[in-house]
Amino acid sequence: MGVTKTDLFTEKQNELAKVAKVFAHPARVAILEFLIQSNSCINGDLVQELGLAQATISQHLRELKEIGIIKGSIEGVSVNYCIDPIRWAEIQNLFQELFSGFPKISGCC
Amino acid sequence: MGVTKTDLFTEKQNELAKVAKVFAHPARVAILEFLIQSNSCINGDLVQELGLAQATISQHLRELKEIGIIKGSIEGVSVNYCIDPIRWAEIQNLFQELFSGFPKISGCC
DNA sequence: AATATTTATCGTAATATTGCGATGTATTTA
DNA sequence: TAAATACATCGCAATATTACGATAAATATT
């Protein structure tokens, strides 16, 4: 099938999975790291930086935009992308909740 | 194509993406949360809990095992799965490094 | 207005993921 | 040893993802 049965899971589980999927490609991780470093960037910079085609970068940027972790503002001919601090913190918390749910001491194996 | 160009990215970026991919399905998130709660479980329990077929659960468990976040030990006829605390902490750090790399104060937009 | 520059979108090919029935394998119990 | 129990693997169909050339859209420059 290839289609996830989202109705079997909680909203939070589906949300975490959806966000994780965006992190699940090295190009998107690289874009985020580049954004952190430069505090803004344009599609063209990333084509140079990453070595992927312009269309491919644009597609990855859209996926990042879709979960709200980055925002783009038009800057003349180009577009300036940057991280949305609010959403970034939200997503950080989502992972944090999962990770902190496991008490390191109680390993059974 | 559908094939990721891993050679364009750093080892760390590829590693984070690979781990994120495992979190990128609600069933696997649910399995991890169930493991945290019960501190151990067997495939059959999860079939009851999640409502997916046995073969499907087994496949998800394999993916979790492949990145080392869970371990299974044979317990008679069944298999007891649990979280590997060492690997869990490693993966937590991987995400933590990314998240903490962005200084919340410096939002540009 | 015409051209250049930059990003978005469309269409397509290659590959990956998801889900499950059927079957295989290993251990336990009768 | 035979049957039962529990998990893994195989094979397949449906869908999703990745990458990119071609082209569209929007702004800037001449």
List the main descriptive attributes of the protein structure presented here:
homodimer; 109 residues; mainly alpha; 5 helices; 58% helix; DNA-binding
Description:
- Two copies of one chain form a homodimer.
- Chain A is mainly alpha-helical.
- Chain A has one domain: Orthogonal Bundle (Arc Repressor Mutant, subunit A).
- Helix content of chain A is 58%, strand content 11%.
- Chain A has a two-stranded antiparallel sheet.
- The N and C termini of chain A lie far apart (35 Å).
- The mean pLDDT of chain A is 92.
- The interface between A and B is large, with 50 and 50 residues.
- The structure holds a DNA duplex (30 and 30 nucleotides).
SSE inventory with pairings:
Two copies of one chain form a homodimer.
Chain A: H1 11-23, H2 26-38, H3 43-50, H4 54-66, E1 70-75, E2 78-83, H5 85-100
Helix pairs in contact in A: 3-4
The structure holds a DNA duplex (30 and 30 nucleotides).
What's the CATH H-level homologous superfamily of chain A?
Answer: Winged helix-like DNA-binding domain superfamily/Winged helix DNA-binding domain
Low-confidence stretches of chain A: none
Give the largest chain-chain interface (CB within 8 Å).
A-B, 50 and 50 residues
Overall geometry of chain A comes to globular
Number of helices of chain A: 5
As a percent range, the share of helical residues of chain A equals 55-70%
Over the alpha carbons, how many angstroms does the gyration radius of chain A reach?
17 Å
